[in-house]
Protein 1
Amino acid sequence: MASDGNKRVRVKLGERSYEILIGRGLIEQAATHFTVAKLGKRGIIIADTTVEPLYADKLVAALEDGGFSVKVLTIPAGELSKSLRQANRLLEKLPSLGLDRHSFVVGLGGGVAGDLAGFVAGTYLRGLPFVQVPTTLLAQVDSSVGGKTGVNLPQGKNLVGVFHQPRLVLADTGTLQTLPVRELRAGFAEAIKTGAIYDAKFFSWLEKNYRRVLRREPAELVETVRRCCEIKAAVVGADEREGGLRAILNFGHTIGHALEALADFTGLLHGEAVAIGMNCAARLSARHAGLPVVEAQRIVKLCKASGLPVVVGAGYNLPALYEAMRLDKKAVGGRLRFVLLKRLGKAVISDAITDADIEEVVHECR
Amino acid sequence: MASDGNKRVRVKLGERSYEILIGRGLIEQAATHFTVAKLGKRGIIIADTTVEPLYADKLVAALEDGGFSVKVLTIPAGELSKSLRQANRLLEKLPSLGLDRHSFVVGLGGGVAGDLAGFVAGTYLRGLPFVQVPTTLLAQVDSSVGGKTGVNLPQGKNLVGVFHQPRLVLADTGTLQTLPVRELRAGFAEAIKTGAIYDAKFFSWLEKNYRRVLRREPAELVETVRRCCEIKAAVVGADEREGGLRAILNFGHTIGHALEALADFTGLLHGEAVAIGMNCAARLSARHAGLPVVEAQRIVKLCKASGLPVVVGAGYNLPALYEAMRLDKKAVGGRLRFVLLKRLGKAVISDAITDADIEEVVHECR
């Protein structure tokens, strides 16, 4: 715990190391933390049309009070903004704003704003300092940590992007009070995933406390974000560019991403797709990696209790779903790599899962 | 010298180290060198409409004979292809080609193909292995080495891009036999720059041998490319991301880039703009950094003798030229940083050059 009452998680990546601060009221304290992180005096904030009216003015005021000069660029709310078209629109606005290599880019909002702002920061002038100010549970527990940035192509999620680590992450848990409940639940799916792959104790804590988290009790929100960031920081610190360990973060994501892609990024929230994907992956784990059936059931049960979907909708064209999985970045030589669990808290990577195995569990989960 | 008669320069960047091979017939030997560099079995080649008919079939045949599977994607010839629009067009084609994270992207051609292919390689699936096969003197002596990739915005050159080091560079000097003489001269401008900033002996060698180089004598072409790559490798190896030393490579480029931008990237070749920029920068160096006037004159004389322009055309709107310079990535806090010479072979960075100083030399060079 930092002396100011915020929690603090350090992501150790050599000269690219940075701090994640977690607590209520961090947006109001932004200038102090920007100064400590040695950010330049000028920057832009990228926010979507939902988050901009809620928090952009507050962040701008806090930074301007601290002597920073910032301008807000707004994008339409929704996953469709995570496109090359939006990235280009933003990049083409930047030359007139007087930015130089020391200027910063802030991604204020959920995963879409963060991933898009990170891509813009990673490519403008071949890389500007980047700050994440996540305002959704999903972004606070997952997408704002780790340096993955990117946009979608019509054929699949995150197919274009760069690794670009932030200089600072401010996870203001106060912002979660305004988050729609469906999004809160979707973010919670990534917390469930984090416990499932890395920390059985944290998984049990989530089972015990999920109601408090979903009721937005401040202490439980902070603890959920803190532990998820700590785990993700450990995984990313060991494997920044997904050569090995980092792949375990994709538990539930191979099928999840494909479901999202076919829903055209609009029908399912990312966390909802991951919950369905975890149902499939838990079954595959029980069958092919030795996960006790009772532990597989605990994952599905916690998802359901949290109000998350776990069933593959009837509307999906299964051949198209398998095709979408093959486009996944994790595929190597056309062969899918699956993250499976040996037990709760212990993930393994498998490339022994056949198309028939996948079809079987997808049918079971319909 | 390698046992196969090729010259070899190693760029030392830790785990991102790679080799530049220089010699005649390297395209025909591509499969061997791709295998040694441990590249995957599948990839794409990006070439423009000028280079594609000359060398793409040859490279494809050489790679397919060696068991590689490659597809050629063509872009229109010319600097206008170095755009976000072209990058997007290429990126959107990739998902249907069955590439995975081990697949490679080859930039075959001049700086435009190399910079654009590098940007595509650096952003697709957050980074694919990249190979440069430069076929212009400019690309062989300069743009294919160092890992800078990118595209232009309407407001300036290379404003969007990433650092993405190649895994291998094959500089087949045989390709220079088909290069239009104007482009050969433009490439030679970067060789003059390289000698001027780093190696007075090499500069003298160029003064003595420029006629042979421009007559495309094979041995002198190889030596020019080899020494330029060696120098650039030393500079980039000491400063991969342009925190310090690397900036000296921009001698002549601050004014040069602005001239290019205002000519809409079509009126002047890059090397021609750099030659004019070097004329201005040599004068600034004599006035503000102690470069002996006789050495400043040698730079201008060698440019002229090589058939390069050294005069700022009458058509330029000077206020627009100064404005374009301010957009330069090298500007910090609105202040321009200039590369000046203390003497031939010894560059320094100066931020003491005023607008009035610049206007003065630009007027002299009109």
Note: Residues 218-238 of chain A form the longest helix (21 residues).
Protein 2
Amino acid sequence: MSTYSPPNQSDNPYIPFGDQRSAPFYNKDILSVLQFTRADLDYIFGVAHEMREMVTRVGTFDLLKGKILANLFYEPSTRTSSSFTSAMERLGGSVIPINEVHYSSVSKGESLPDTVRTLECYVDVIVLRHPEVGASALAAKYARKPVINAGDGVEEHPTQALLDLFTIVEELGKVDGLSVTMLGDLKYGRTVHSLARLLTLFDVNLKFVSPEILRMPPEIISELDQKGIPQSEHFSLEPVISETDVLYVTRVQKERFEDLSAYESVRDAFVITLQTLNKTKERMIIMHPLPRVGEISMEVDDDPRAAYFRQMEYGLYVRMALLAMVLGKA
Amino acid sequence: MSTYSPPNQSDNPYIPFGDQRSAPFYNKDILSVLQFTRADLDYIFGVAHEMREMVTRVGTFDLLKGKILANLFYEPSTRTSSSFTSAMERLGGSVIPINEVHYSSVSKGESLPDTVRTLECYVDVIVLRHPEVGASALAAKYARKPVINAGDGVEEHPTQALLDLFTIVEELGKVDGLSVTMLGDLKYGRTVHSLARLLTLFDVNLKFVSPEILRMPPEIISELDQKGIPQSEHFSLEPVISETDVLYVTRVQKERFEDLSAYESVRDAFVITLQTLNKTKERMIIMHPLPRVGEISMEVDDDPRAAYFRQMEYGLYVRMALLAMVLGKA
Amino acid sequence: MSTYSPPNQSDNPYIPFGDQRSAPFYNKDILSVLQFTRADLDYIFGVAHEMREMVTRVGTFDLLKGKILANLFYEPSTRTSSSFTSAMERLGGSVIPINEVHYSSVSKGESLPDTVRTLECYVDVIVLRHPEVGASALAAKYARKPVINAGDGVEEHPTQALLDLFTIVEELGKVDGLSVTMLGDLKYGRTVHSLARLLTLFDVNLKFVSPEILRMPPEIISELDQKGIPQSEHFSLEPVISETDVLYVTRVQKERFEDLSAYESVRDAFVITLQTLNKTKERMIIMHPLPRVGEISMEVDDDPRAAYFRQMEYGLYVRMALLAMVLGKA
């Protein structure tokens, strides 16, 4: 679908399951975190919470029986691809995985619009992962069927931002009033950019902890300022850890540093260990978009505050909700 | 199955859905366009039309529930592979995708007959794409389960030819009496060869438009002559466009030309634009096997005569029909 | 699941289908042939036999409807992967194929425990193929969901050993009292090692026929000795073929030999032809784990003693049984 219009039922965010072609998000695209109002988020998370309950109680159900999803991945992402596949299958639908687009028509020079217009002859909804910024919007412009952006380029990965936020909601019961600390590579990390933007819809306090060369980009800082979000920057976790409700950890990649010694000198300051846990609130959560490579010590995994694997599971429920919604079944 | 015998119910081409092991094509292989009589085509297109109606009305149905398809692709083809996958899933069946045969047993030196005899232990029907001429016939010789040729080498891609013809039938309501113009690379294009052969079963008029070096091969010309098909060759679309009912466009590949200037000099004569549309009948269709890379201008896409994306959709119905038929359910 | 405890219902090995969370193997891992008692095997083969009957009678059934399998393959194996996929689909379940782990998070350096803990958020059971010894045990240690070893490194491929043994049971009606001859590469062949170990639970007679440089490893010989299994070694099939009930053929790879002439001199002695059949019992079976590359002549395939393609089919039933069992449905 080429145009997005916000749902008009924001006062009544939750509607029981059923075939509701007048429902919000029916036949809409999911392209950007910027498309959502706070009422939209309430609605999405209401449906995602129902999905969680139903998976817990009965495992799967046939809400999308007979529907087919094209999982069109122009770059590999096992995690995201598996999550959407599971979401569709847990709802009784089927999936056509298209992982090797580098081998296929696409490599013969076919344009994204043509690929999408061909695929939509076979399926009911398209999930697209693409290395280029704007690819999802382009696909959605030509497709008659709904398109869900599963990450395109450095900017947008809206379902990741939604699952991050849903994790906070489910784990801590609210978002307003929380102190959210983002740690690690805040310059290149698309997940922290999207989450920060989504959090502007709430009454939160943001703290950014990063090495000097990986600070949150000034344009995002200024965007948050304009929305009136209290924020502060730090080069160490120490001053903010004790008041943090949500610690969002990302990976500091060696390759970002010009020389190895600069990397070595900061590395340990951005690793979460049992010692870090000693300084936190008793009720707080540690998140990570995964994969991690050493930035959270494995000994932390068994602590109830370690929410990163549960975060993956919340992702399943959010994607189930989105699929059901755009297909008019939620 | 190793032998093909034509259906003997040609007077009564359409039979309602149900389990009919005596039905034509039950447990038969689909290997070549040459295997079909005109009565076969009537039967196949009758079933395919039913599939179209049922998909339009209810989306999917469980005709092949519990049946499993092995999608065995020795060379990549996203379009064909996705189409068969969707066809099976829209009928309630399951698919085992085997796309990476270059990594697998096959690359350990296993023969095609052994691969097929192993796979058929797991599935009910095998769709085979292979770079070598005759691969499907070889597979069918050893398999007890039905084999469908999804393209083997330069010669045969029978389901493509069937979907091309079905497109004409559904779009124009008939084949007899039509003037069909094939444009572009007629020398190497397997789709135009197969379609031309299939059209000999009908009362049509064929026009071939190509650069000198990409003319329809003499053996096909002579084969059509023997069947009494009126045909003519041209180096430009101009003289035939106004009387054309079906314009079948294929890609003229730069690599076919010895020097770039020869290519540049002919290229524009084989590109379809809005100007081309001005010269056509009001009721005619433009087809293309896709992918296209510039040989039909995108501005043409919105015209009702542009049938190439609908053509993809007809492919789904033809493949649904074939799967249901060889599994005895249509 | 990290711990394996043997089933405690060995006196009553077969239980009709149904949801039985107290059933043996519910939520257990399948990691090694060493984990099974003879009672376990009776139980597994009882369920596998039921699966065979049900597939023969009705094709598929919905025992695992709504369940999802992650087919996590760190190295390609079309045969094993397709077999598990079919097993899950024949039981009405769904599959998430993860074949390209070299492209994915894993290649970004993610640990196997993290990959498994992420995947299990999406699925109900994990089948793992991995090039390293012990990978399955490591995965099972961290996973809450059951893990099935589909081959890890040179040692273990327990479902292959189970299907080999099940083939013998179904084809010959018993295992006790049989003379089993293993032929070919007995040094590196993981299938013959596992099968030999599993056979120590029965009253069999083992004969090993191999070139000098590919003899059964001394540690296995001694392991079998300790279990009191009668065994003998030979460099030619001639002396043992006439008394063999099960001839298990494996491939002698050229690469194992230092010089080509050594290979050439022994090769023909390890090829099964119609001449070999002339010397065997009338009721015996020839097995092979496949793929074969010349070590059994194709002319042998049509003989009823050639059991190797049926062996693939028995593999389907064993894997259906294991999936149903670990998911508490058998």
Note: The first strand of chain B starts at residue 68 and ends at 73.
Protein 3
Amino acid sequence: MSDQPSELDRPQVDTLDGLLGKPLRVLDDGFVRVVDYMGSDAAVVQAARVSYGTGTKRVHEDRGLIRYLMRHRHTTPFEMCEIKLHLRLPMDCWRQWIRHRTANVNEYSTRYSLAIDAAQQTDRGEWRLQAEGNRQGSAGKLGAEQGQQLSQRERELQARAQQVYRERIGLGVAREQARKDLPLSTYTEAYWKIDLHNLLHFLALRMDSHAQQKIREYATLIGQQIVAKWCPLTWEAFVDYRVNGTSLTRLDVEVIRALNQGGSERAVVIAQELGLLQTGKRGWKRNRERAELEAKLNQLALAIPWGEPPGD
Amino acid sequence: MSDQPSELDRPQVDTLDGLLGKPLRVLDDGFVRVVDYMGSDAAVVQAARVSYGTGTKRVHEDRGLIRYLMRHRHTTPFEMCEIKLHLRLPMDCWRQWIRHRTANVNEYSTRYSLAIDAAQQTDRGEWRLQAEGNRQGSAGKLGAEQGQQLSQRERELQARAQQVYRERIGLGVAREQARKDLPLSTYTEAYWKIDLHNLLHFLALRMDSHAQQKIREYATLIGQQIVAKWCPLTWEAFVDYRVNGTSLTRLDVEVIRALNQGGSERAVVIAQELGLLQTGKRGWKRNRERAELEAKLNQLALAIPWGEPPGD
Amino acid sequence: MSDQPSELDRPQVDTLDGLLGKPLRVLDDGFVRVVDYMGSDAAVVQAARVSYGTGTKRVHEDRGLIRYLMRHRHTTPFEMCEIKLHLRLPMDCWRQWIRHRTANVNEYSTRYSLAIDAAQQTDRGEWRLQAEGNRQGSAGKLGAEQGQQLSQRERELQARAQQVYRERIGLGVAREQARKDLPLSTYTEAYWKIDLHNLLHFLALRMDSHAQQKIREYATLIGQQIVAKWCPLTWEAFVDYRVNGTSLTRLDVEVIRALNQGGSERAVVIAQELGLLQTGKRGWKRNRERAELEAKLNQLALAIPWGEPPGD
Amino acid sequence: MSDQPSELDRPQVDTLDGLLGKPLRVLDDGFVRVVDYMGSDAAVVQAARVSYGTGTKRVHEDRGLIRYLMRHRHTTPFEMCEIKLHLRLPMDCWRQWIRHRTANVNEYSTRYSLAIDAAQQTDRGEWRLQAEGNRQGSAGKLGAEQGQQLSQRERELQARAQQVYRERIGLGVAREQARKDLPLSTYTEAYWKIDLHNLLHFLALRMDSHAQQKIREYATLIGQQIVAKWCPLTWEAFVDYRVNGTSLTRLDVEVIRALNQGGSERAVVIAQELGLLQTGKRGWKRNRERAELEAKLNQLALAIPWGEPPGD
């Protein structure tokens, strides 16, 4: 590494510099602001090349190297970039957010200051129905009339909670106690600083269709409007490999292999041996792993060898 | 380390075994239960002695070694013990708790399940007044009449919030959305697993008189009723050095030294040079660092050399 | 969770208890000993079910639940198990090991004690050749004669280094300085404590065929002889999904899909559009991503649509 | 926080910018280079003020706020600054360095590249004697003649090791195996990125007089030549409170208090009650905690009430 330059400028990303400090709106009253950042795609490459030393021919282009690192989960070079965001979001969203333990955090304190006088409100058209088969998700919307009623009740409850809070404060109750019955929809703010690797991990989980709706909106914005500008090559690789990639288990591989080698019949035998096809009262017994395999076969344009599971 | 035994029993702490699974009550409806643990004082000693190798005479008794480690912040041996707790606590308390990033956590999910139908309630005699000089604390209680009124309003608000939640669930709203206006006082539960070093760090911060009242109750119980039984020597050292110890800054040391060497006059000169004594409109200018030094002088039974700051 | 038992026994795994303290040999003079553990497959399930609450029917069998968690990377329940190992390994192996930052560590100190008088030695038949295409790996062995010579030189060098070390110690040189020229092959020892999730991550990386040979031997032993006994259901899922699973990128999916829908011709068009097939001087231009896709096609028993890349 | 500016410039520290990329020399062939940084003293203040919200009067000056945060171990605002260094250091020094788990790291790989052809050499005047009472330290120097001899042997051993390494490489041995007997004094390089809070923790431990000599030289340089320029207010507070501060245990406080209230006699009684003064065969029994208290009494210019321990 004797050929390291002895003078350096700080890496700068012009498209991101244009965003610094600008609140990008989310939900009815939330935002994400970029406060500062360190590094860029070039810093990922720079760190990866530490491993190669001076004697190494730089055969890889930057894009190829970044894609290689992402594909093979060589994650440390992505930790060499860091970003600091200023967030405004409802507390029930923050409750999930903060579970990611690898970030640095300073949250607005309702012990030192009065709580933010804003709660996230739901439009009458935005009440979502509980999904049937998927206990963590939602599906479809409530009708307009019921939605109207729920939004009305929500406003009343939030107003009532705010009134109770103000009354306590007015009587001199300690802020740390006065806040205790604020609704989870109350907005909070935080500075949140994280490295690029851990941010991508956060995005992979929180942009996912199984994530809570509100945190998905934040995650999607951070990914598409911030990371995509900050580190475009890294973002492209992330989208190709993590967001739009899929994984095959040993069982998946064996069934697909059998299908390609021996046709449907052979695949069915293998699937049975693997315990994926067990006969229940009506057709195949429910099997979550088989259901996921079927979705993957679909994605790969392969016919499901056992037909539609009868009666499922 | 050639003299390591080739058979081992798992360390066991009888006094803690008696507690396993028993809910220790906190607040009106919270608890802490010990689910499992790894190690004991003996495991701290065992790990510390890895550093000494076979040739070392075991001159230190276990207690002396543990105290030495604690005093000199040799923290890694304390990481060799681990405890798993089952907690039930209000969400506004959990919001602080979860900021400690070094633990393993599984929280009750209000996306998968209905929210716990219990919120922490405040007795009429338990409403605390905001402290004056200390924006984060509380001091004294509200009168009984006002307390009565606040507790009444609290119950109404919590009931109202629960009603709104049930209405949403009844109409089929997705659980992840229905929960959005639950009050922060709603109880949640979690499994929380942490090593002894990080637990002590948590306790040092959360048993402190500056900590939020409710989290202090949990922390104090965990310390006094669990850690004290689990690792009594470690607990004793922790109490002697962290809980009941104090720290002196360079400025503190210089002033105390001057006081002991040259008396009050010399101490005042030094304090002035250090910028601790500046004349304001009325007496000494407020100075937080001086105020803290004065408290320490008091604690050490040393007279404050500049007298009570005039007019402060 | 009101139906939690109010008494608990510590989870115990008999097959693992039989191993406690027994050194499992690795390399010529290394070992792994299980010192203690917390939890088992049952603890993973227990933690996962916190999320489901009392109202939930326990439809999943334990095995199914563990497999589901592993497949969908719900990692926190696996963090509820913890294991403590006593390791003896060469320092150049430890240098890689310690890069995993999520463990608790106490290493033998050569500042407090004399360095361990043992270095890892290489048998004449064990000298591996540098792999051609793969700069980090090895392939094949050196001939017996050269191996003999290298092993001889190794012994001499190690003896010489030990002699220099002893001379320094004899003259009273500080241990922290005397050790400075010990060879990386010198053995060290450590207590290493880690949760099951992070252990599996370690194993996924270090059992891999791209990992350094020596650390692979340790990782393989820990996986197959320890984790497989400690948490057999978790281990089975890990092997099915991580060790023997594979991942498909968006590009892989698109090519395979085209192949199944439109045959080879269509797949070639898509691969070209995706930049995977560019004509070079002799046949297709080298492309690492295409090479990896070809390996996956092979694994799935699909023919490579562009034939063997001409002249590559 | 509604008054947040909607445009921001990246914080910049001119005195540090002048250092970017310049290797600051350590030992005979090591260096530290600042590659990039995020934030400054102002970023610490900015993050701390998130907790205060819009309604708060900014009564604290920046310096006062930073000092308050440091004194009371409000550590999160310091995590909002980040620095990235390029290090060149001997492997035995790196072995200690890497134990700090909170940094991001990319190390030069001797699997991908040939090992760096440089080992740290010890001048004949630099051989240090093992300290007597303190098993981890060193004290005084070896005489010139013996030093001469040791330096000569060192050079021979390092040359021999390099020769063996080259021979293996020449015969085609895999790099990951060829390196196995390199001396610990061999230089390595790394990119190392860490936040300011964790960096200060590293410095507190590694600038300490008990730290290994070589890592102290790196730590001292990083503190005095880099952090002092980057965040001068933070550095000043760190030096006043951590480096030059001291801590008193409960026992220390009780003895000093007794001394100030009741004179030597009373202090001796208290010290006996606390178990600090036990009569041994010759004078007081050795007691490490008492010895540390005596050092603190000295520092505070207080006479040791029990006189010099007789016969110790």
Note: Residues 132 and 281 of chain C are 22 Å apart (CA to CA).
Protein 4
Amino acid sequence: MQPTVNELVVEQFTRSLGNLKNILKKAQTHAQDRKFDENLFLQTKLAADMFPLIKQVQIACDTAKLTCSRLSGTSAPSFPDDEKTMTELYARIDKTVDYIKTFATNDFKGYENQKISFFWNPGKHMMGHDYVISYALPNFYFHLTTAYAILRSNGVHIGKGDYLGEMQWKS
Amino acid sequence: MQPTVNELVVEQFTRSLGNLKNILKKAQTHAQDRKFDENLFLQTKLAADMFPLIKQVQIACDTAKLTCSRLSGTSAPSFPDDEKTMTELYARIDKTVDYIKTFATNDFKGYENQKISFFWNPGKHMMGHDYVISYALPNFYFHLTTAYAILRSNGVHIGKGDYLGEMQWKS
């Protein structure tokens, strides 16, 4: 048996976006404990010319959303990047998860032959299979881990367990 | 058509470990240009209580190696964590890639029912499918991105394109 694309992208993104939300909540608690505005974290960066936390979260959400729409050959709803608070970022994550959960295995039938194009590379496309392996999954985790790294290097008490989330242990 | 586990893990890990090696080489060039020992990067961290670069690379390699052995129900060779130089880290990446490339689609038959256990959680196991989705892929990219972030925040001139590597564009 091979994994379905649905399991692969919807299951991974849903899990990991939930973990991201928990990590952001720990950052909020950290800020409240130290009596500073948690929204200061939104503009925090790892390097001057990298994206700040808010953008890392927005791109992680958009990668999840667009992976599902592109592989199913459908159009994704537009989620404008207008969040200004941690609470609004939670809502962005929630609506992304609600959207990607609408997909079922059959929606991705023929995903490997979808031609995926990007506005920044006109006239070119990637095939669906290459897109999943070479772009969608690594890009999603890049932004998730960078969001984690921004908060972790700013003293928020989080660890790998928060990033990975609950494991399905059996005995 | 669904992606094979072989495509999913071997293809992703091979690509991404190659990208990691290129990123390390850019760090080496950066150090040489500025006339400092490139091996100073090996102990660089994002936070005092996080693992340094060398350990991020070793864990990324081990995650790739152990994912293949665990999902195929075989034993992996031991690669001791005794690297001391950037050049030795390249060799660690190379032998990991050589090893994971020995796997073919058939080796992962029944992967979803493999019981995956960890020495740090005795008496418990995870099923192969859950292991891929919830542990192997996110853990691999966590260490890859953290290695990138350590170098990026230390001024090495790398960007997302180096992390993602060459894309399979078609026209």
Note: Chain A has one domain: 5-164.
